[in-house]
Amino acid sequence: MTPRASALVLACAAATLALPASAQLRASPRVAPSVRVDSGPQSADYIVAVVSSEPITNNEVRTRLQRFEQQLTQQGTALPPRNELSRLVLERLISEKAQLQLAQENGIRVDESQVDQAEAGVARQYDMDVPQLRRQLAAEGVSQANFRQDLRNQLTLTRLRQREVESRVRVSEADIDQYIREQQGAGNASAVELNIGHILVAVPENAGEQQVRELQAKAQRVQDRARAGEDFSELARQFSDVPGAAASGGQMGTRSADRYPPLFVDAVRSLPVGGVAGVVRSGAGFHVLKVLERRQGGLPGAEVTQSHVRHILLRTGPQLTEAQARDKLMDFKRRIDAGRADFGQLAHENSQDASALRNGDLGWANPGNFVPEFEEAMNALAPGQVSDPVVSRFGVHLLQLVERRQAKLSEREQRDVIRNLVREKKLDEAYAQWAQEVRGKAYVEFREPPT
Hints:
With about 450 residues, the chain is of the alpha+beta class. The protein is built from 15 helices and 11 strands.
């Protein structure tokens, strides 16, 4: 498997949807026992657990285990013992199965148009169309049916979590003041925030010495070009084997230092903003790292990148399904791209929110102002570009990015940014509690492996 193909399969297997931090592997109060994951052929499959009459098989655990091992290795994170990771993977599968059963009981459904949209999103990340994506997955042994089912499950879980968890979270002015006090008084790594540019030159498993030397030389050339002042985002798009590098330009995003792999933090510790570290080696390959931003105290900086965006919103219901809304907005996009329609005029005539009076204009927005799926689509656009339809809890949107700018935040705007940070933290905590509640109510029977 090539490094880039391996990264593609890893990203696709994870269904391309980001989960909250609390959705990562964690043990619950009723944790799975030790699990033996066989490495033999899939024909020797057997049931390892039953969740309310639905089985989890050894092959499911093994597939997910391999996925997480690849992900952790690619991030430069040391792997825990395999039996411990196997136990946590099984616990994660049990939790997901229980949540999917709850979604079914509550009538949550994901239609084909949403799965189509998610699949197209994966293809765009890798500069492919959907047929090319399917051929690539088939070449790597991932069936189209399994891939689309993974997408459907993750979309279902996301919708369930939004409905069940978000209503629990409230952020008060006192919460914001407490966060500021904590961050200003912190003296550890969590008080330093970094945005690191990352390019991975992946090294395949069982690579020979000659191939390793060639890949190391490739990483060194990329590092030299970055240090010479070439656009890091363009280098990432050309050379990085990290899933989604084409869309992100290699940016890992601003986060506290303790949320980065220690290997990366150590490499950039003494670098100024704009500095490029020496090539770093991990189990995944060779990493080229650049400090894009460094901020002390965990508080939002004086400047942020603001986006000026407009949209067309179609609300779904008995009179308009999500599939119909998506088809209608795709027709709008084709007409706009062909120059046969004006975005503002279509927004004025069709958008089902107050922005219709302003031709869909939502004004200038700071990071975190919009729901994640909307913001992700917006961030992937170049000025003037129109997105594909985007589904959110409000309906189906068509977005157009007007322009971007760097802007200084007022004190009130800084508090709004902090409000979003606190809300994200509370959502993680609320999700963890909710997930444990759902897991605790599920009937789970563990099975011994056959002898």
